[in-house]
Amino acid sequence: MAEEEKGKEKNPKNNQNAKKRKRKDVFIYGNYKSYYGYRIGHDKSEDPRLSVLNKEWFEDKDCLDIGCNQGLITIAIAKKFSCRSILGVDIDAGLVENANWNLRRIVRMEHAGGKSVNASTPDLLERVNGLHQSTSASSSEVAVDLPKEPSPLKEHTLLERVSFQTENIIKSMNACWEKYDTILCLSVTKWIHLNWGDDGLITLFVKIWRLLRPTTKYNFNRILFKPEMFQELLLDKIGFRTVETITNHTPGSVVGFDRPIFVFHK
Fold first, then answer.
1. Which of 44, 132, 153, 205 is the most exposed place for a label (fewest CB within 10 A)?
2. 3-state secondary structure of 83
3. Quick one: how far is CA 255 from the chain centroid?
């Protein structure tokens, strides 16, 4: 038995395998570092989820992306759908750091190449991650490959609209109310359920509800039919035959509630 153990110690391959097993990362929150690589696939031009999203949900809206990972979907949505602002939050500080790095890198690549970069493609992810791994974290070294004169307006616009921060949505953002028009929560509920149980999932849904703005302001700004047009609409478009005015004034009504009453006949 002693000889067998000694043989294992002499075999460097066994030692390397043991070290690899010890260093294996466990992503208990679903915070995979290579998530986009196998989620999108190399035969796709962009993340397929983008194709089923409506532009009206995001255009000129303030948005929140819960569980943003390395931020590529967040950035792609900002670029494709023209968000007014979008904040990506993730429980993993390392992923948030990568997301901020990806944002700066994508902007620089676009300026250097003079064309739009699809932020959600696997090829871009490999290029970005490869550059990130081969570049020192020192800011002076990162700045070496920057274009000398990037377009300040374009960079400013995207960098101003997209931001990332480390957040545990279950344990933070308690005091926030009605800050966002649209909230994304993609491939996140399973991990919240596993880590915080039913209570955690309910907490998530309650916070999303609280953080969403009501849609009344959005609808109000797009209203075409005013009250004075209702009679014409009901008679000419809907098909009612006649309208009878019961009263234009109701005595004793509280100020603001003295309104006309009509009867429409089919």
1. 153
2. strand
3. 45
CA-nearest of 189, 196, 176 to 66 is 189
User: How many Cβ atoms sit within 10 Å of the Cβ of residue 9?
Assistant: 9
Alpha-carbon span 191 to 194, nearest angstrom: 5
The closest alpha carbon to 189, from 207, 176, 216, belongs to 207
Half-sphere exposure of 248 (CA within 13 A, CB side): 1
Q: Tell me the per-residue pLDDT of 51-74, one tens digit each, with 9 for 90 and over.
A: 889 999 999 999 999 999 999 999
SS3 at position 58: coil
Q: In sequence order, what are the beta bridge partners of 62?
A: 85
Residue written as token pair 């609209």: 161
Q: Which amino acid is at 171?
A: K
CB atoms within 10 A of CB 64: 25
How many residues in total does the chain contain?
A: 266
Q: What span, in angstroms and rounded, lies between the C-alpha atoms of 82 and 85?
A: 8
Q: Which residue type occupies 232?
A: E
pLDDT 10s digits, 209-259: 999 998 777 777 788 888 888 888 889 988 999 999 888 877 777 777 778
Plot region of 169 (φ>0 → left; ψ -120 to 50 → alpha; else → beta): alpha
- Residue 112 is which amino acid? A
Give the tokens for residue 232. 């014409």
69 — alpha (psi -120 to 50), left (phi > 0) or beta?
left
Q: Which two tokens stand for residue 261?
A: 């009453």
Query: Hey, what are 187's tokens?
Result: 């491939």
Q: Which residue has the tokens 């995979």?
A: 32
Element (H, E) at 8: helix 2-10
